[in-house]
Amino acid sequence: MLKWMLVVIVAVIVLGFLAPKLHKFGLGRLPGDLRFRYRGRDVYLPITSTVVVSLVVTLISRVI
Fold first, then answer.
1. 40: left (phi over 0), alpha (psi -120 to 50) or beta
2. pTM across the whole model
3. pLDDT by residue, tens only, the chain of 64 residues
């Protein structure tokens, strides 16, 4: 359980940094992705995009 929580946290951080480039592919604009302004900074929480990327990676790992 702890290992999966660590994977999800790392995926959220990586998606947060890659958000501008992934925005072209539609990730980051899905329902459930949170974007708001806090103390003058834009905060982005890609919850739904993380789930989609996780499903794709899982499917690819099971095929290989």
1. left
2. 0.59
3. 788 888 888 877 886 787 677 777 777 778 888 888 889 988 888 888 888 888 988 898 888 7
